[in-house]
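Sample pair:
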Amino acid sequence: MTIIDKCMVGRMRKAIGSYSTSLFLCFLLGYQAISEVSAQETSQTEIESEATQEPPSASETSSLSDEQPQDGTPLMQATDWLSRLAKQVNLLSFESVFVVTSSGKDAMPYVWRRATINDGHRIEQLSLLNGPGFEQIAHLGKVSVFEPGFPAYSVKGKHVQSPIPDGFIYNPEAISDGYDAIVMGRNRIAGRMAQQIRVVSKDKTRFGYHLWMDEESGLLLKLNTYNLEGKLIEQLQVTQLNISNDLDQLFANFNPDQMPENQLPFSHEQTDLAWDISFLPVGMDILKKSLHRIQRTGQLAEYMLLSDGVVDVSVYLIEANPAFNQKSSWHSGQNAVVARSDGTVQVTVLGKIPEKTANLIADSIIAVEETQ
C-alpha cells in the first residue's frame, strides 16, 4: 500500500471528473482558504534588463546596512522600513495605481485604495483595470469578490488578496523566521526618492524580493521577485500614488448591507488528518488543517495551509480520477502546481514558491502513524 493509500480518509463524497478539473477546483478552494486565515507588466525587454543578482554574503549585509541617506533622515534598519510600510498602509488614505509584469504574460494594471469611511472603520479596494473587471472589497472582516461570469460572494478576511505578499504590508514581523531583510540604499522610483530593501530566503527554498519604499510616505513604489537563479520573474511598478484624506469620499456611498453574503466553508474547525508533511522550508509553519467544501462544486477536500509570512502554500488531498496515475508539475511565473496521484487519491500542492520546493513538499507527505 502506498503512502497516499494510507492517507486516504473515508470522508470524500464524489470523485473529481478529470485531472484538469481538479486542479481548477484546487485554485478556487485556495482563494477561500487563504482569505479565511489572513482575515489573491512593463515590456519583456524591461523585465530581462534587470540585473541577475546572487544572495548577499554576511559581509555584504553589514556594509549595505550603512547605505542610508545623509540628509538628516534617521538611520533605519531593514526591519524598520518594513514596519513603517505596514504602519502607513493601515494609517494613510491613498490610491496606488500599479502594473504587474512577468515574462510571457500581458501587463496587469491595478488600482489599490485604502481609506477610512464614515463609520470610522477602514475599507480596502483592489480592482483589475484590464478586461471585464475583477474587484475585491474588504471591510469589517469580510472580503467581497466580484468576478465576471460568476455570482458575487464574500468570505471572512481582513484584507484583499493582492499581488503584494501580505507579510510585507500587514505583518512584517512574521517573516523574520524564514527571511533575512537587508538595506540596499536609495534610488528614484516613479519620480520619488525610495529606499531599497532586499528580502532573501534563509534556506534558498523560496523566491527573493527587492522592495522600494517611498522615503516620504513609507508606501511601496516597486517590488521585484527573483527566482532561485536570481532571474527577475515578476515586477510590480507603481505608476501613480495619491495620498489624501479626500479619497475617503470615494466610499461615501458604500453600504455594507449591499455586499454579498458570506459563503460558509464546510468546516470552521481544525481537523485531525491521517496524513502529515515531513518537509517544511525554514520559517514555514502549518497554519490550518481542515476539511472544506469547494465553493462552486460542493466537492470535499482535505487541506493544510502553510505560510512563512510572505507566501501561503495550500496542500490538498482529494479523491482522484482512477484513470489518472502519475506525477505532474507546472509553473507560471511565481505560481507552482504539483500533483501526485495513484489513481485513487490525488495530492496537490500550489503556491507562489519554486517548483522544486513544491515537489519537495509533495514528496514529503506521510501517514500520521509514521511520524509517531
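The first strand starts at residue 94 and ends at 102.
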